[in-house]
Specification:
Structural class: mainly alpha
Low-confidence stretches: none
Helix content: 55-70%
Distance between the termini: 34 Å
Strand order of the largest sheet: 1-2
Strand content: under 5%
Order of helices and strands: HHEEHHH
Shape: globular
Amino acid sequence: MLFQVRELAQHCNVSPDTVRHYTRIGLLEPTHDPVNGYRQYNASDSTRLNFIRRTKTLGFSLNEIKRILTECQKGKSPCPMVRDL
């Protein structure tokens, strides 16, 4: 399933501006529709957005969350870093 900004925002119970902001700072990396250029988010983006929301409620900053996600993308366990943070 593919979402546009507003659809992803509704699906994850955030504002469209939040989705756009997270995209601008690199927390979300949508693809672009080749026909119209609209951003397209998939189910993994939805999962990632929900993860971001949950970690923010635990007190992590967006920079810390970005570091955690970067470690995960490298295939490394972020657990030691999370404990340090």
